[in-house]
Amino acid sequence: MLSKTPPMGFNTWNTFGEDINETVIKETADAMVATGLRDAGYEYLVIDDCWSKRERDPETGKIVPEPAKFPNGMKAVSDYVHAKGLKFGMYSCAGTRTCADYPGSFGHEFLDAETFAEYGADFLKYDYCYKPNTANGPLLYRKMGMALKACGREILFSACNWGCDDVHTWIRSAGAHMFRSTGDINDSFPSMREIALSQIDNLAYSAVGCFNDIDMLTIGMYGKGNVGSTGCNDTDYKTQFALWCMFSAPLMLGGDIRTFSEKTLALVTNKTLLRINQDPEARPCFAPERENDARVFVKILSDNEFAIMLANLNDYDTHLCVFFENLGIPADSGYGLEMTDVFTGESLGVKKEFLRRRIPAHDCECYICKLAK
Questions:
Q1: What is the rounded distance in angstroms from the CA atom of residue 211 to the CA atom of residue 158?
Q2: Could you give the CA distance from residue 338 to residue 353 in angstroms, rounded to a whole number?
Q3: Can you tell me the distance from the alpha carbon of 27 to that of 81, in angstroms, rounded to the nearest whole number?
Q4: Going along 168-250, which residue ranges are E strands?
Q5: Selected catalytic residue, list 184, 234, 341, 363
Q6: 127 catalytic, yes or no?
Q7: What is the value of pTM for the model shown?
Q8: Catalytic residue among 49, 112, 127, 236
Q9: Would you say 57 and 94 are in contact if contact means Cβ atoms under 8 Å apart?
Q10: Which domains does the chain have, with CATH numbers?
Q11: d(Cα 341, Cα 90) in Å, to the nearest integer?
Q12: Which of 289, 237, 226 lies closest to 261 in space, CA to CA?
C-alpha cells in the first residue's frame, strides 16, 4: 500500500523553478544520500514543471523531455535516481497546459500515465492549471487516477488542485495518495502562517492512504530560489517543520539540499518530529487553546503517547496555557502528563492540571507526553 504514512522527499519547484536539468537532479540525488536524508526517510525526488518540450511529439503524441535539459532522456535520469536507493517523481497537469505553459494531460491521461511508467516514475504531481471551464474537477482527477491504475507501474498520485472544489471531501475516492489543500507557499513567515491556520478545520480529512498536502517546505531557503520572497530565519523554519509534522503533512523539502547547513539538516532529520509525522495511526491533531494566532495542538500517537505543540504564530511574544481538562484529563483523575522536550530531550517531569509557557514570536515548543500519576 502506498502512502501508509505521509510521503517524504524533495521537489524541485521552490528552489529551481524552470532551471532544472539532468545535472541538478543527479547532484540532488547524490546530496540526499550523502546528507543522510534518504536514510531518514526522504525517498522521493520529484521533478516539477518545465521538464518537457513546449509541444507533444507530433508522431507519437507523447510528452517528451526537453533535450537541452535532459540530453540522455528521462529514463536515464530515473535510473540514476533509482540506483541511489531513491524513488523518482514527475509532474503533469489536469489542464490542457501546465502552469508554466507546457503540455498538460487533459485528454491524454492514459497515454501520459503509460509514458511516466516507461520513464520509471514512482510519483506523479498532478496540477490544475488551464482547465477548460466545462471540465469537471473531480472527474479530471478520477481519469488520471484510473490511468495510473492501468499503467502497469505503482505510482503515488499527488493531486495538486490547491484546495478547489472542496477537494478534501472527494479526493480520496479518486485514488489520490496526497492532495494539495492550499495555494502556493512562499518563503515568508506570513505565507507559512496563513497556510497552517487555514487547514485546522480540515485536518481530520487526512488519514492513512491519503494525506493533506499543505505544500512543499521552504526550510533552508533563506530568501533564495524560485519562491524566495522575504525569507525566514531558523526560528521560523523550526516552527514550520514542527507544524507540518504535527499535521501529518507530506514532508517534501523545497530548499537546495546541496547547500543545507548542519542546523537545517538537524531540524529536518529530528527523529522525534519525524516519528510524530510518521506515526502509523496518522490521527489528526486538535487545537484546544488559542491566543490570537498562537495555538496549542495535541496529537494522539501510537504506543500510548501524545504530542503537544505550543506554536506562537503571532508577531509578538505571548503566553500559552494548556489546560489538561481540555485534553480529556480532568484534575480528579489523578493523572498528569510526563513531558519531554522534542528539541532538547529535557524532561519536564510530570505536570498536572495545566502548563503555562511564554513563547517568543514565531517560536514553538513541542513535547512527547505519557499519562502518569
A1: 9
A2: 12
A3: 10
A4: 178-180, 211-213
A5: 184
A6: yes
A7: 0.97
A8: 127
A9: no
A10: 8-277 (3.20.20.70), 286-372 (2.60.40.1180)
A11: 38
A12: 237
